[in-house]
Amino acid sequence: MKIYTGTGDKGKTSLFSGERVPKDNARIDAYGDIDELNSILGTLASHLSDEAELTEELQQIQSDLMQLSAWLATSPNSALIESLEEISTKQITFLEDAINRITHGLPVLKSFILPQGHPTASWAHVARTVCRRSERKVVPLLSDLPEGKAAEQYRKSLVYLNRLSDYLFVLARHCNHIHGVPDKLWKT
User: Fold this and answer.
1) Under 8 Å CB-to-CB from 3, ≥6 apart: which residues?
2) Which of 33, 68, 96, 171 is disulfide-compatible with 134, CB 3.0–4.6 A?
3) Cβ-contact 64, 163 below 8 angstroms
4) Are 41 and 58 spatial neighbours (Cβ–Cβ below 8 Å)?
């Protein structure tokens, strides 16, 4: 199979469900940001290779983001909607449990912190900001959807992305902590 097809040379691409849309379509923009986030998480995981539990968590999150992207890349009126794996509350609970576990080992935070520190913490902060951008891109897509399975999944996607940004914040702090780098407090 050739990696290049030439079908996108005129500024259009295909959704997972087959429709051709402009490459600047809001749906493409949203799952493009999630793809960027997924790549950053892969970079972070590669720098945390000595932390098996965190690496496995990040790989699970990457898989979840692929699932979320499949929903965004499928038209709500497509028959493919029925074959997509649903985003579950179990995936959201997975993030909440990880947040609770990681937070338990961190010093209490009484101030805002600057997004910096150990390189792994910095990558987690970059991922957090891209996650927030991704969340902002999904919001307007939901307002255009009729009620139904797709709208329900987009709402769960927003909850998932919101929890993921929280997870990435505590992960950044954890990365600093395990590498002996104190959080840099914001001083006004």
Assistant:
1) none
2) 33
3) no
4) yes
Q: In this structure, what token pair is assigned to residue 90?
A: 């179990």
- Residue 24, helix vs strand vs coil: coil
Which structural domain range is residue 172 located in?
20-72+88-178
Neighbours of 34 (CB within 10 A): 24
The pLDDT, as a whole number, for residue 45 is: 96
Distance from C-alpha of 165 to C-alpha of 169, rounded to nearest angstrom: 6
Tokens of 112: 């805002």
Residue 105: which CATH number?
Answer: 1.20.1200.10
The region, left, alpha or beta by phi > 0 then psi within -120 to 50, assigned to residue 86 is beta
Asked, for residue 2, whether it belongs to a domain, the answer is: no
Q: Which two tokens stand for residue 62?
A: 């990457």
Measuring CA to CA, which residue among 159, 26, 155, 144 is closest to residue 76? Answer: 144
pLDDT of residue 188: 67
Whether pLDDT at 185 is above 90: no
**Confidence (pLDDT) at 97:** 97
